[in-house]
Design a protein that fits this description.
With about 500 residues, the protein is α/β, with parallel strands linked by helices. The chain folds into 3 domains: about 160 residues, HUPs (Rossmann fold, 3-Layer(aba) Sandwich); about 120 residues, Phosphorylase Kinase, domain 1 (2-Layer Sandwich), CATH 3.30.200; about 190 residues, Transferase(Phosphotransferase) domain 1 (Transferase(Phosphotransferase), domain 1, Orthogonal Bundle). The protein contains 18 helices and 15 strands. The strands form 4 sheets. The chain has a 6-stranded mixed sheet, with helices on both faces. Strand 7 and strand 8 form a beta hairpin. The relative contact order is 0.07. This is non-specific serine/threonine protein kinase. Its EC number is 2.7.11.1.
Length: about 500
């Protein structure tokens, strides 16, 4: 059952009668209350002109359809909606239940997305649902409308793109303070404050575009003292906007055009989950291409594994419960991405960020799928990093949910063994090749990091090794999927 909506606007392509089946099924599944309002808007993009050819609804063009033809076609399409048996039944149901139901068919003109935005504003929509044909306009609609926005997927399920945004004062200081303190009534993540350092997460629904000037100020001119690291895709700096700690990533590539950059990363900024490092917004002024993330306080899993392996006394090795908590959190984050059609592309310990409570936040998701030229052959992969690439990715250079799954299995091996991907113990082999004989012979004690001692749970050990084996199948079709198997992980692992 879809959640209630006070003013629901459903926008579809009136030129495609076959697409109405999904919209009708959707409308019947919605829950309404007396006084709610529902509008079904058909956007007519093309009409038959006098020559019998389909013409775009561009009235400014000498090749477009004339106004008489347009009006006739609009009337025909609206009649089709009204006379549709299921829609008519829905209309009667709404009338009996005290729900206002309207049907509108409008011409697309030069810009169907402008028609959609104008209709949503005129209607005062609190929720807009787009059919599959309108999906390509989602980024523009998300920028223009503060209401909840969803899209109908291929299986007729609903995918939320944006929750209702709260309008705030445009003053930068006030916005930043509200984001940090959570004054706008937005929903909070679970465990929003680190129990050790008291770092607070932004509210779930908070995001916006940034100016280069304010990011420059937040990082003190991208100063050396705020420099964190250099990654495949850019340079990372820590910053602060009136109490809100952020991480600013300057992208190396400036080949993105402004609209392309906005389109590519606005969709990623809508991803919100307990176990994701949230992309708060972007800056695309001039030649600047910058991503702004929430700050995660306790570095990456790679840091904790490598510091431990180097034997440095500044950090304690992760105990068994902490490792299981990290594995479970990372699995949930990756599952969310895959359920929302986002391929991570570079899942590895360096992109699993941790709090002092060992809550895992998966970061840098989706970058390899939108960055120009990012592939196995051009990503600067070193020997140690090659182990994360599935066989088919090494061959074809194409990331998928299955290649993510393979990388997840490698990460599990590291948590189990405590080994780096190029540890001297491996004697020149990569971690996966070294582990396969032990997995085949079920020599699980030979895999386990002996420095854990006897603090591990034997059932958890056997289960996590089984999961790792299924992730590391050479045939991608034989691997598990995060969507199906993450939910089978026992929640009591996350202590």
């Amino acid at each position: 059952m879809i959640s209630e909506a006070k003013r629901l606007l459903v926008i579809g392509n009136a030129s495609k009668a076959a697409r109405r089946s999904a919209i009708k099924a959707l409308l019947w599944s919605c829950s309404f209350q007396p006084g709610d309002k529902l509008m079904l808007l058909g956007v007519l993009r093309k009409v038959n002109n006098r020559s019998g050819y389909r013409s775009k609804m561009d009235l400014s063009s000498i090749f477009g359809a004339n106004q008489k033809t347009v009006q006739d076609e609009l009337a025909v399409k609206k009649k089709e909606y009204i006379n549709d048996g299921e829609i008519n039944s829905l209309s009667q149901k709404c009338k009996i239940s005290g729900i206002e139901f309207h049907i509108e068919v409008q011409q697309a003109g030069d810009s169907p997305r402008e028609v959609a935005v104008r209709a949503a504003r005129d209607f005062g929509a609190t929720w807009v649902i787009l059919d599959k044909h309108m999906k390509k306009d989602k980024v523009y609609l998300m920028e223009q409308l503060p209401c909840r926005i969803s899209v109908v997927k291929h299986n007729n399920a609903i995918k939320d793109l944006q929750q209702m945004r709260v309008t705030v004062d445009p003053d930068v200081k006030r916005i930043s303070r509200d984001a940090a303190c959570g004054s706008h009534g937005n929903e909070e993540f679970q465990n929003p404050v680190c129990s050790v350092c008291r770092n607070r997460r932004p509210k779930i629904g908070w995001k916006r575009n940034f100016t280069f000037e304010e990011l420059q100020a937040a990082t003190e001119g991208f100063s050396a003292k705020n420099f964190i690291a250099q990654s495949t895709f850019g340079f990372l700096y820590r910053g602060e906007l009136n109490g809100l700690k952020i991480v600013v990533k300057q992208m190396k590539s400036t080949s993105f055009q402004q609209e392309e950059f906005t389109s590519s990363f606005s969709a990623l900024s809508g991803a919100r989950h307990e176990n994701l490092a949230v992309l708060l917004g972007i800056c695309s002024e001039g030649n600047h291409r910058i991503l702004v993330y929430e700050y995660i306080c306790n570095r990456s899993l790679e840091f904790h594994l490598s510091e431990y392996l180097l034997g440095r006394s500044l950090i304690r090795p992760l105990n068994w419960d902490q490792r299981m908590k990290i594995a479970f959190g990372a699995a949930k984050g990756l599952k969310y991405l895959h359920e929302n059609d986002i391929v991570h592309g570079k899942f590895r310990p360096s992109n699993i960020l941790l709090t002092h409570d060992h809550e895992a936040r998966v970061g840098n998701f989706g970058l390899s799928t939108v960055e120009h030229g990012a592939s196995f052959f051009s990503s600067g992969a070193t020997f140690g990093k090659l182990v994360y690439y599935a066989p088919e990715y090494a061959e074809l250079g194409k990331a998928s949910t299955k290649t993510d799954c393979f990388a997840f299995g490698v990460m599990l091996l590291q948590l189990i063994t405590g080994l780096g991907t190029a540890d001297p113990i491996l004697r020149g082999k990569n971690l996966v090749r070294w582990a396969r004989p032990l997995l085949k012979d079920r020599n699980y004690p030979g895999l386990l990091d002996q420095r854990i001692g006897d603090s591990y749970d034997i059932h958890q050990l056997f289960w996590i090794i089984r999961v790792a084996e299924k992730c590391l199948k050479k045939n991608p079709h034989s691997r598990i999927s995060m969507e199906k198997h993450e939910c089978r992980w026992s929640p009591h692992w996350a202590t």
